[in-house]
Structures are given as structure tokens and as C-alpha cells.
User: Fold this.
Amino acid sequence: MKLISAKNQTEMSRKASSLIIETVRSAPEAVLGLATGSTPLGTYQELIRDHSENGTSYGKVTTINLDEYVGLDADDPNSFRHFMDNQLFEALDISEQQIHLPNGTAENLDAECERYDILIKQTGGIDLQLLGIGENGHIGFNEPGTPFSSRTHVVELTESTRKANARFFERPEDVPTHAITMGIDSILQSQKILLLAFGASKAEAIKRLVHGGVSEDFPASALKRHDDVTLIADEEALALV
Ligand code: PGA
Assistant:
């Protein structure tokens, strides 16, 4: 794992966006794996700025998001699809057909998971997967204990994850109980992985990732089995490394 340190969240976001922009410029038909949450927000702002100032085009890019809540449709303000539209897609020259997230309102969720794995394969696979990390080491919604062999699947969210995500909802009880997430093996199939972390709340997880062993108790440790992972973290997240 390659480690790049950044002074703060702003610098982390600049460095992350540079890598993504480089990917898209050298391969205009790149398949980008994207994430939601607070971690990538600054990076998305930088992509938007670059798109408007330098004209980097997403006209041929395909995006595949990590996860979506079960029960929320694309128009729901709390859905990840809505988040992505607001934070990134609406500001880029990317069309509806190029954007992919799991369908959280599919009637048959197992069939939807299978469809998503097939879709990822049909795109030719993800060139660059952007990831955040949970305080408990989760990646996507793959909580501790998830088999490293997992593909896209439905998960019941842990109380701690529902609490951490409650800040995006009007009432804590509105946070859905289930989500569809790409599995750990689905993530590891990506050509390159870009993991981001900022802030003191991530310091323990980053310490365990860098210094700890590989175990299903700590999902992010699976990334040590991938040979092209870049971790960009700020000084606070790196404080215990
Ligand atoms: P965050 O979440 O980006 O909101 O910190 C990351 C995660 O839980 O995967």
C-alpha cells in the first residue's frame, strides 16, 4: 500500500482529485468506482472545479457506486443516488446511462445484487475505486465479519453505522436498516484503489490498517491483498501511525 500524507482535508482532496483527473485524461472511457459520505466531498468539489476550469470531460466515463440504502428511491433526498447527483453528477458532462448505483427499491434484492455484479463485469471492471473507511474499518457497507469473498449483497446496518449516518437524516429513526453494497471481493477486483481518510476520528482505524494484520474482523485489511492501493490521509488521521 502506498501512503501519501496530506496536511489537511483540503490537501487530501486536491491530491485525490489529481489522481482521478489523471485517470480520466489518460483513459476517457475509464470506469470509476465512487463512494458517498463526508470523505469524498472535497474531492468531488475539486473534480467539478477542474471540469469547469480545464474542461476535463466525463462524457465517456462510466461510474459505479459502492452502495445504496434499501427502500430509498433515486428521488429520495437521503438516497445515495440523490447525494451523488447533488454533489457531483449534475455539475459534470455525464449522462444518466453512464451512472450506476444499486437499486435500493428493486422488488427482488438478491436479483438486483446479481445484476450489479454482472454489470460491473460488463463495463470491463472498475479502473479506479474510491473508498472511505469507517471507524470500525468498514469499506462500503461491509461491516466487520464480512467474508473477504463477498460480492454485491444486502446487509443489515449495525447500530454504530446507522448512528454515524444519522447526521444526514431528519430523525435518527429514518436511517434505513438495510443497504445493498458491493462486497469485499467486488472491491478487490478493481484495477486501482484509492482510499481516503481525514480527521482524528479515523486515526485508530488507519493505525490498525497500516500496522495490524489481515483479518475479516477489520474489513479494510483486505486491501493489503491488493497490489495497487494508494492511501491518502491527513495529519490527524495519520497521528497514530
Ligand atoms: P465518512 O464515512 O466518509 O462519512 O467518514 C466513511 C465510511 O463510513 O465508509
